[in-house]
Automatic annotation (TrEMBL):
GO molecular function: aminoacyl-tRNA deacylase activity; ATP binding; valine-tRNA ligase activity
Protein's organism: Diplogelasinospora grovesii
Protein known as: valine--tRNA ligase
Annotated SUPFAM superfamilies: Anticodon-binding domain of a subclass of class I aminoacyl-tRNA synthetases (SSF47323), Nucleotidylyl transferase (SSF52374), ValRS/IleRS/LeuRS editing domain (SSF50677)
PROSITE patterns: AA_TRNA_LIGASE_I
EC number: 6.1.1.9
InterPro entries for the chain: aa-tRNA-synth_I_CS, aa-tRNA-synth_Ia, Anticodon_Ia_Val, M/V/L/I-tRNA-synth_anticd-bd, Rossmann-like_a/b/a_fold, tRNAsynth_Ia_anticodon-bd, Val/Leu/Ile-tRNA-synth_edit, Valyl-tRNA_ligase
Record domain Methionyl/Valyl/Leucyl/Isoleucyl-tRNA synthetase anticodon-binding: where: 627-748
GO cellular component terms listed in the entry, alphabetical order: cytosol
């Protein structure tokens, strides 16, 4: 493809373009065992074992913001993004790798434009998820629960887990080449973050934004905690379905409705739960198993459809959100029947101590014995499931802490509609509006040991009541002055938040609402949502399927799950290539075979860069190549740029221009420009190989740039456009393609 000499085949040279001796750049030999962080000498191209470049970027401060001499943002502007903090629940997956790669592309591109850039790293503590995985680990290794250890010892175990996986996450980011400013790393439970959370909780409580109320919450008995609505998945059932539920050996029957009769107090009538029952309104039914409990019969023209079933239903205001509101309207008694850990409580009489789903079968048998059982039918229903544990969620009446959301929601919608924040793609913005229209107050309290503790206590005073000055009840270790840092002044709001669309409501919407409240400004100017990574068959990657890919798997780590053996029967080769990415265009099916093609592409770039170039002369094919380069730079869209650069390198620069330039020294100066620009263009996508190759290019006079990281990104130069040259080249190429096709069809040798 490319030669090591500028001379090539002399017989192909034009008489009017004499061959010139190309200067040869002598490179020092690579020295093994370079101290970590030190700049290394490079092997020559002829050395087939040249290793991945280990940049001095972090030690040299290349990843720091790079302020102007007056410590302000540069004239070119700023570009700041935070890492959506991965949770310390375990290793990173390919979704993290995708998001990290896209963010790195944006940061490197902005840095090469001369902007003040900052990419802030960090990890999230993930209260429910981390506590759950540590509890599972503890049970697997020691057959103990957190209650065996006690709070203090268990929290110590969680911090040990956090330290291990936090380091592993950071190592993965570093191995991927992420150009993060590690001096600004944060953890959501480090000292500054804990102090800020405590301070703001008290402030919001004083304003009435945070309040405590006894309301129905989503209760997960497996995790023993309340959940927000966003942590609950509603599964549609069309009829009888058997589901696996944590804590039960056999699958549980759901998707059915049981019809039975209530005896009427003081009457021989029964009501099967409409004008048919009008004469019973105001009377009371008798609980079939608790005779002392009276059940009032009420009518409601809005809640009940008389055409559905018998036209009558039982109400459980203490365990159903719709019944809760109806119970308040009719002043019904709110009775809770379930303990926090899945057992029936003292309000259930003879069923006390039984598990909730076991009770269902017992009650059906007892109803049959009493002659009150009617039948059981399929019932289309939505079953709420815990996203983390898979447990069936139970609405339970509990005192919890809530945050008022309506005012915050209106402000967030307003700034998005005013384009102060742009949400891309358009489908994500529409989803944002739909969710914000139906938002409810946010349950922020959890019954966990790991996480931010709510510093609110019940106080008991002995002796007479006294007057305690209000300002002595609470002490804060953080002030507003502490929060107003130089970074906040210079680099806030941030430029962009790049994230998966699946946490648009979990994380992004709440960041907008709280950012506006806390700072009076939007937290970022743009939200970019990428699709989810799925396997080659379009299935969501999950640990249960065994198709989750750790980014380290691409370094041939031994993962032998059955699904992986099917998808990758030859193992997973190591890769340093980027796949074609469809940013904001739906989910992405990950196929290792596609990655293999791009691994070959990286090798092709390496081989193409071995051609020796000089810095004199130019001709029309050169301008044609630069015109193609300008077209690639004008798009700026990830998929378009990726495909354009790939086509430029593969189809034009290597297959055509380098082959055409081997014997024409007059074109080598423009080949140098095109090659240099091509490396700069692709650097944000492939930082390692481009750094290695860029270091080998001869330097222009006066150019003392230390790294491609700091080099200027190619800009669109209209004066270099040459439509005539492009048209001429297209004619030559199409003719050449036709000739090659004919030669192949008739099996003609090139010599012929």
């Amino acid at each position: 493809m490319a030669t090591d000499s500028a001379r090539g085949n002399s017989s192909s040279s034009s008489p009017e373009l004499p061959l010139l001796e190309s200067p040869v750049l002598t490179l020092p030999e690579y020295v093994e065992h370079t101290p970590a962080g030190e700049k290394k000498y490079l092997r020559s191209f002829e050395d087939p074992h040249c290793k991945t470049y280990n940049p001095v970027a972090e030690k040299s401060g290349f990843f720091n913001p790079g302020f102007a001499a007056d410590e302000k943002v540069r004239e070119e502007g700023s570009f700041v993004i935070p890492v959506p903090p991965p949770n310390v629940t375990g290793a990173l997956h390919m979704g993290h790798a995708l998001g990290n790669s896209l963010q790195d592309i944006l940061i490197r591109w902005s840095r090469m434009q001369g902007k003040t850039t900052l990419w802030v790293p960090g990890c999230g503590h993930a209260g429910i998820a981390t506590q759950t995985v540590v509890e599972k680990m503890l049970w697997r290794r020691e057959k103990k629960t957190r209650h065996h250890l006690g709070r203090e010892e268990f929290i110590g175990k969680v911090w040990e887990w956090k330290a291990e996986y936090h380091e592993r996450i950071n190592n993965t980011f570093e191995k991927m080449g992420s150009s993060l400013d590690w001096s600004r790393e944060a953890f959501t439970m480090d000292g500054p973050r804990q102090a800020a959370v405590t301070e703001q909780f008290v402030s919001f409580h004083d304003e009435g934004i945070i309040y405590r109320a006894n309301r129905l919450v989503n209760w997960c008995t497996a995790l023993n905690t309340a959940l927000s609505n966003l942590e609950v998945i509603n599964r549609e059932l069309t009829g009888r379905t058997l589901l696996e539920v944590p804590g039960y050996e056999k699958k549980i029957e759901l998707g059915v409705i049981v019809h039975f009769k209530y005896p009427i107090e003081g009457s021989d009538e029964t009501i099967e739960v409409d004008l048919r029952y009008k004469h019973l309104v105001g009377k009371t039914a008798i609980h079939p198993f608790l005779p002392g409990r009276k059940l009032p019969i009420v009518a409601d023209k809005y809640y009940m459809d008389k055409e559905f079933g018998t036209g009558a239903v039982k109400l459980t205001p203490g365990h159903d959100s719709n019944d809760f509101h109806l119970g308040k309207q009719h002043d019904l008694e709110f009775i809770s029947i379930l303990t926090d850990n899945d057992l029936m409580n003292e309000n259930t009489g003879p069923c006390k101590g039984l598990k909730r789903f076991d009770v269902r079968y017992k009650i059906q048998d007892d109803l049959k014995k009493l002659g009150l059982y009617v039948d059981k039918r399929d019932n289309h229903m939505r079953v709420p499931l815990c996203e983390r544990s898979g447990d069936v969620i139970e609405p339970i009446l509990k005192p919890q802490w809530w945050m008022r959301m309506r005012e915050r929601t209106n402000e967030a919608v307003k700034v998005v509609k005013a384009s102060e924040i742009r949400i891309r793609p358009e489908s994500a913005e529409k989803s944002f509006y739909r969710w914000m229209e139906n938002i409810q107050d946010w349950c922020i309290s959890r019954q966990l040991w790991w996480g931010h503790r709510i510093l609110s206590y019940f106080a008991r005073f002995e002796g007479g009541a006294g007057n305690i000055p209000e300002d002595t009840l609470y002490f804060s270790g953080r002030t507003q002055e502490e929060a107003e840092t130089a970074d906040l002044e210079r680099l806030f709001p941030t430029s962009l938040l790049e994230t998966g669309w699946d946490i648009l409501f979990f994380w992004v919407a709440r960041m907008i609402m709280l950012g506006l409240k806390l700072t009076g400004q939007v937290p970022f100017r743009e939200v970019y949502c990428h699709g989810l990574i799925r396997d080659s068959k379009g299935r969501k990657m999950s640990k249960s399927l065994g198709n989750v890919i750790d980014p380290f798997d691409l370094d041939e780590l031994p993962r032998k799950a059955p699904v992986k053996r099917t998808a990758f029967p030859q193992g997973i080769p190591e890769y340093s290539a980027w796949p074609p990415i469809r940013l904001g265009e739906g989910d992405i099916n990950f196929d290792i075979k596609v990655m293999h093609a791009y691994r070959r592409f990286a090798n092709m770039i390496w081989q193409a860069s071995k051609i020796r170039v000089c810095m004199e002369g130019s001709n029309w094919p050169s301008f044609w190549i630069l015109h193609k380069l300008n077209e690639a730079l004008a798009g700026r869209e990830f998929m378009k740029v990726a495909n354009t650069v790939y086509g430029y390198w593969y189809n034009q620069l290597c297959d055509v221009f380098i082959e055409n330039s081997k014997a024409r020294v007059s074109t080598l100066q423009t080949l140098y420009s095109a090659l240099e620009a091509a490396l700069l263009l692709i650097h944000p996508f492939m930082p390692f190989v481009t750094e290695e190759l860029w270091q080998r290019l001869p330097r222009r006079p006066g150019d003392e740039t230390e790294s491609i990281i700091l080099a200027k990104y190619p800009i669109y130069q209209k004066e270099l456009d040459s439509p005539d040259a492009q048209a001429a080249c297209e004619l030559v190429l199409s003719s050449s393609k036709g000739i090659r096709s004919l030669m192949a069809e008739y099996a003609l040798d090139q010599a012929a």
